[in-house]
Design goal:
Length: about 190
């Protein structure tokens, strides 16, 4: 892992994007890293676009500002590709993880990656519906991010999902989120 891994999440209020950033940070913390996870809200309402950020490092983090040049960009809501420039500030070697069921060529055209940028896709919403009955793509995206980034193992992610969700939800929901996270890790594909 490079000195500092910076991640920017794009989603809408109510999709679990902020929770996903926090769960990923907690798992990296459990893996011995220094972490930050924080949101940036516009209007605080369900459906409003929002951003969340992660910083992951093997050294203490002293920077406290938004992530301007993310190495990885995670897009929880594919409709944002039509209204927000999710590539803003992304370096030439950035990685994009997009939740979508659309044809990969459509997604790639919307991202328009440079030669060295990589685009990954996963139908995280479908996985969430199949695993726990709600269109909340956060757990599958956490699994996909773990796989693509290599910042944390699947086992560590699953333990932290269990800890994070175990305080608030019934066993059935926890088990569904664990399965969704595992499937996200297994099913994310580079396009």
């Amino acid at each position: 892992m490079s000195e500092i891994l910076e991640i920017r999440w794009h989603g809408r209020g109510g999709q679990g994007t902020v929770t996903a950033a926090k769960v990923f940070a907690d798992a990296c913390l459990s893996g011995g890293r220094h972490v930050q996870a924080f949101p940036e809200y516009g209007p605080e309402r369900a459906g409003a676009p929002l951003r969340a950020y992660n910083r992951i490092s093997s050294h203490e983090l002293r920077m406290h500002c938004p992530v301007l040049n993310p190495k990885i960009v995670v897009v929880a809501d594919p409709t944002l590709l039509d209204s927000i420039n999710v590539t803003e500030g992304a370096p030439d070697d950035a990685i994009f993880i997009i939740n979508s069921s659309k044809d990969p060529s459509i997604i790639k055209a919307k991202i328009n990656p440079t030669k060295n940028q990589k685009v990954f896709m996963i139908d995280a919403t479908k996985i969430a519906i199949e695993c726990f009955g709600r269109p909340m793509p956060n757990s599958p995206l956490v699994g996909a991010l773990a796989k693509v980034s290599g910042a944390v193992t699947l086992e560590t992610i699953l333990e932290d999902v269990k800890k994070s969700f175990g305080k608030k939800f019934a066993k059935k929901i926890i088990d569904g989120n664990l399965e969704a996270t595992k499937r996200g890790y297994e099913e994310v594909k580079e396009i």
